[in-house]
Amino acid sequence: MTDSEMRSRTAGQDDAPVTASKTADPDRKLLAEAVTINRPARELYDFWRDPTNLVSFMDNIVSIEPIDRDRSRWTVKAPAGREVSWESVITKDVPGEEITWQSAEGADVANSGRIEFRDAGRRGTVVRAVIAYDPPGGVIGELVAKLFQREPRIQTRRDLRRFKQLMETGEIATNARNPRILAGEGK
Amino acid sequence: MKAITWHGKHDVRCDTVDDPAIVNPRDAIIRVTSTAICGSDLHLYDGYIPTMQKGDILGHEFMGEVVEAGPKSSLNTGQRVVVPFTISCGSCYHCSKTQYSACENANPADNQDIGREGYGHPMPGLFGYSHMTGGYAGGQAEYVRVPFSDVGPLVIPDESIPDDKVLFLSDILPTGWMAAENAEIEPGDTVAVWGCGPVGLFAVQSAFLMGAERVIAIDHFPHRLELARKFGAETVNFEESKVYEALMEMTGGIGPDAAIDCVGLEAHGAFADNIIDQIKASTFLGTDRIHAIRQVILATRKGGRVSMPAVYGGFVDKFPLGALMEKGLTLKTGQTHVQRYLQPLYAAIAEDKIDSTFLISHRMALEDGPLGYQKFHDEQDSYTKIVLKPGQAAGATAA
Ligand SMILES: [Zn+2]
Ligand SMILES: [Zn+2]
Questions:
Q1: Angle value at C-alpha B283, between B280 and B288, nearest 5 degrees
Q2: pTM for this one?
Q3: Cα B301-B204-B333 angle, rounded to 5 deg
Q4: What is the rounded CA–CA span in Å between residue B191 and residue B189?
Q5: CB pair distance less than 8 Å for B91 and A161
Q6: pLDDT at position A185, please?
Q7: What ipTM goes with this model?
Q8: All structural domains of chain A
């Protein structure tokens, strides 16, 4: 995923992001979701930059263990009580603006992504996540779909909404009537 | 605890369910002292609102006593509170603009997809009103978990003000007020209000307070029309008179300056097109019955304002879009931003400027809730408003 790829392919005619393309390259899975969060970009970036924070609002994640400043090991729930693990490497880091990562060579689940934080004035910050993974049909694609348990786009959108809830309100909204019911939901 | 639960069309029960407890830091637990059955609960009762699940706890108009407060709640144990039916976080962009029912955070992330699919954006979080509005347990119960309790509930400091006077701050009173506000009433206006249920009657009172010279109230239940007359409205009984013709003549051929549709899905009138719409709705063609709003748009004067607080759920056909455009009407609608109106309306109640108790026709034990639903549904003329009192002995229905 290059910068130019992320912008428009038909510069001057269409400002829509490439992820909204009707004729997206069928050989790769690329999705983007954006949410506006009523907090400063730097605060959101700082929270996201510490991978141990991500577990609190991302579904299906068992643990994220930092290895060094740019590397971390992700362990994710897989079907039938299994777990899948891979190493993730930050490949680009612009403080307060964006973080790009990809799975290390030889990962079971090849994936890459970017999170952008763009100042939105009185509305706060536009947070945009771009996720790329191998096509469905391939072994990796199938595995990714199972890991996400739902369509990856829906999962990404829900993760971003929970991130927004946590950053704006200090908690993640739930309709669970009591902690026992909440635990029963597996969250 | 005991709670009124939904099990299907015309099937609500008083079940024993799990007690609520603090889940999030901003939560509070309320012991319910009074909870009302709302006209929009009848839409659930009639099976018109999708995404209800068996066992869902109903109720969105309630008040009570704080029995437990989370570490980040601003409430204290023992306080008496009225709880708005809209659940709002207070910290998102929409909440900062006091558009509380557009709150982006109260509806849990997993439930937001439903509204996004149907409406383009997630629905607000509401108590006891289906899973597209969050799937929150409602207040027709002995206890309720109230999320974001530092933003919603209004503390009633004056113990001498009874529940009956302030309970309706939770929904129908601010809803009637916002309905009138959305009609952008100017001094001297003639305002027509369709539907003299609780919201319609509060809209009548609010319209006068905002300077309307005349209010014309439209309904078919004699008792409800009588209540509207008590507040100074002229009335039209649509079973006896042609509404459009009556309004034109009463306004010298101009039409009302502003019109308020307080009917919505609840159009129980026996109109031919109502029945057709009803068949479509019951066969899940997803069409709302819109007789009232059709009539509203045709009758409102050119350049006038239409306010639509009434609940609609899905899609409509035969909507007079051409009339809306050609006459240059303004249409305003939406779920009530309850928190915005709590303080001023509480002050109006305390100063006896707004009468909010006239509506209550029956008080019942929580256990008698299922009977209450049936009576409210079948006998709307005499059952104008039912308040359920948890703790009151069952069978002891009091007027
Ligand atoms: Zn209501
Ligand atoms: Zn909010």
A1: 40
A2: 0.89
A3: 60
A4: 6
A5: no
A6: 66
A7: 0.89
A8: 25-171 (3.30.530.20)
